[in-house]
Design brief:
- The structure holds two protein chains of two kinds.
- By secondary structure, chain A is of the alpha+beta class.
- Chain A has helices at 15-23, 38-44, 80-85, 87-92, 94-101, 106-111, 114-119, 128-133, 151-154, 230-236, 243-256, 267-286; strands at 8-10, 30-32, 52-55, 65-68, 71-75, 137-142, 145-150, 155-157, 160-161, 168-175, 182-188, 199-208, 211-220, 227-228.
- In chain A, the strands form four sheets. Chain A has a five-stranded antiparallel β-sheet with strand order 4-5-10-6-7. In chain A, strands 11-12-13-14 form a four-stranded antiparallel β-sheet.
- In chain A, strand 2, helix 2 and strand 3 form a beta-alpha-beta unit.
- In chain A, helix 10 packs antiparallel against helix 11 (243-256) and helix 11 packs antiparallel against helix 12 (267-286).
- The longest helix of chain A has 20 residues, at 267-286.
- Chain A is globular, with a radius of gyration of 19 Å.
- Chain B is of the alpha+beta class.
- Chain B has two domains: 4-79, Roll (Ubiquitin-like (UB roll)), CATH 3.10.20; 80-156, Orthogonal Bundle (DNA polymerase, domain 1).
- Chain B has helices at residues 25-32, 78-81, 85-97, 106-118, 126-132, 144-156; strands at residues 4-10, 13-19, 51-54, 57-60, 74-76.
- A five-stranded mixed β-sheet of chain B has the order 2-1-5-3-4, sandwiched between helices.
- The chains are: A alpha+beta, B alpha+beta.
- The complex binds flavin-adenine dinucleotide.
- The site of flavin-adenine dinucleotide has 29 residues of chain A, from strand 2, helix 2, helix 6, helix 7 and strand 10.
Chain lengths: 288, 170
């Protein structure tokens, strides 16, 4: 029997049961959702299998997807396949739907979840930028109670989250795309599918009377977590999208990121691409 | 290790297994159930050779702990494909178009094709067809003949779906 088969699989039937198990160190298991990160890490030996895994894949409470006034509520267990297809997501958080559609291939999309993408805490997770530009919040729960945190402050650092060991990610609250605003998503990698991004990102913006009234942009794989480029955003407000604005934003974006070199790309290339991505977002916004 | 007992519908038949819950679905299919048609390529979800349909959706069986597959789940492997009209059509067209060379990726590729073609809302553009196969890597064909086979199958695809409806998936 291999090492993974020694792991005990806990199978709570409800969220309450799951939280009860997580409350005590002696019964707690590592949350296992779609397994598209964990199974790979365990099988490749990057990380040893834990003594206990907590199967949260079948928990009905994590599967919700609904519109609550002007907030889209998405359960942590909603899969990428659902995100890309659900009319509610396509309409109210289009860049999230677009990002989900470009994760892995159909098989990974059918398994992987939004909770797992954020829970994996990788700077290359493709869903974080779209949550950041929407000022989304993540809701966490434990037997101690529930709390809501902005995704921006939930992502503490490389593989670090503001998540206590007894807590589970339950759902995301995503302010819908406001009237007149537009979103976009773009990812650069070695091939179109089934590839981890070198740089990727999303924006949400709105033009009013020919000037930028609102602009949020977030990039991933350019820092220890996905980040908002607050400096560029502030600089852009009130400007018309002309060639000076495009050049200025491109330069500022390249200056604002602090990427590293790794097996997937060099820091220099990532910095350059970051600027180009922001420029292309603005060009797209200008044509809206 | 405490084993679990699960009964699933595999290729239309009820099959019961007694297994460690963290055994990969791929190993349960190949070793416990001796369904060797499903292949292991990379073991990391990248290549798609181990694709099967789980409640109507294509998934990589190497990334699934069998204990996560609920009681009563419906699983279709390449062995079950030839029992379906669409599966037989795909088989014929893959042969006619020369879509298989070494053949190792083909069980998973056929599953991806079948999943794509079974979707009544399928988008018939070249992009959508290729996107539906993006999780399956083939090192021989260059994909052109696979795309031709699937495009031909799309034109002749049988209307009513013989596949049980997906149950309980978001
Ligand atoms: C072949 C392949 C291609 C891929 N391509 C891409 C890609 O293009 N872009 C991309 O972004 N990702 C990609 N991925 C990575 C992966 O699909 C995602 O990160 C996925 O969203 C993880 O979700 P999951 O449900 O499978 O997580 P799991 O593997 O089950 O869990 C991941 C982590 O999150 C934790 N976790 C999960 N759910 C919760 C919860 N509710 N509360 C607390 N913690 C939780 C787990 O404990 C674990 O630490 C790819 C993976 C593979 C195998």
């Amino acid at each position: 029997m291999n090492a993974l088969e020694q792991t005990i699989l806990l199978e709570p039937a409800t969220l309450a049961e799951a939280l009860q198990l997580q409350a005590d160190e002696a019964t707690r298991g590592l949350p296992l959702a779609g397994g598209t990160d964990l199974m790979v890490q365990w099988e490749s030996g990057v990380r040893p299998p834990p003594p206990r895994a907590l199967n949260i894949k079948s928990l009905p409470e994590l599967r919700e997807l609904q519109l609550d006034n002007s907030t889209l509520v998405i359960g942590a267990g909603v899969t990428h396949a659902t995100l890309r297809r659900a009319p509610l997501v396509c309409e109210h958080a289009p860049s999230l739907a677009h990002a989900a559609a470009e994760i892995g291939g159909a098989q990974i999309q059918a398994l992987g979840t939004i909770g797992g993408s954020i829970g994996n805490a990788s700077p290359a997770g493709d869903l974080a930028p779209s949550l950041l530009v929407a000022d989304a919040e993540v809701e966490l729960a434990s037997v101690r109670g529930a709390r809501r945190v902005p995704v921006a402050s939930f992502l503490l650092g490389y593989r670090k989250l503001d998540l206590a060991p007894d807590e589970l990610i339950v759902r995301f609250h995503i302010p819908v795309l406001p009237p007149g605003a537009r979103e976009g998503w773009r990812k650069l990698g070695p091939r179109a599918a089934q590839a981890i991004s070198k740089v990727m990102g999303s924006y949400r913006g709105r033009i009013e009377n020919g000037r930028i009234a609102q602009f949020a942009v977030a990039l991933g794989s350019v820092a220890p977590t996905a980040i908002r480029l607050r400096g560029v955003e502030q600089w852009l407000i009130g400007r018309a999208i002309d060639s000076d604005t495009l050049a200025g934003a491109e330069q500022r974006a390249a200056d604002e990121v602090h990427p590293i070199a790794d097996i997937r790309s060099t820091a220099e290339y990532r910095r350059w691409v970051s600027g180009r991505l922001v420029r292309s977002f603005l060009e797209q916004l200008a044509t809206s | 290790m405490k084993k679990i007992i699960r009964t699933w519908t595999i290729n239309g038949e009820a099959r019961t297994v007694e297994i460690p819950p963290m055994r990969r679905l791929l190993d349960v299919l190949r070793e416990d159930l001796e369904l060797k048609g499903t292949k292991e390529g990379c073991g990391e979800g990248e290549c798609g050779a181990c694709s099967v349909l789980l409640n109507g959706e294509p998934v990589t069986a190497c990334l699934i702990a069998a204990g996560q597959v609920p009681e009563g789940a419906d699983i279709l492997t390449v062995e079950g494909l030839e029992r379906t009209e669409g599966g037989r059509l795909l088989q014929k067209l893959y042969v006619e178009k020369g879509a298989a060379q070494c053949g190792f990726c083909i069980p998973g590729m056929l599953i991806a094709s079948y999943a794509y073609l079974q979707n009544p809302d399928r988008d018939n553009t070249d992009h959508a067809l290729r996107d539906a196969h993006a999780g399956n890597i083939c090192r021989c064909t260059g994909y052109v003949k696979i795309v031709e086979a699937v495009r031909a199958a799309a034109e002749q695809w049988p209307k009513p779906s013989p596949l049980p409806s997906p149950g309980g998936r978001g």
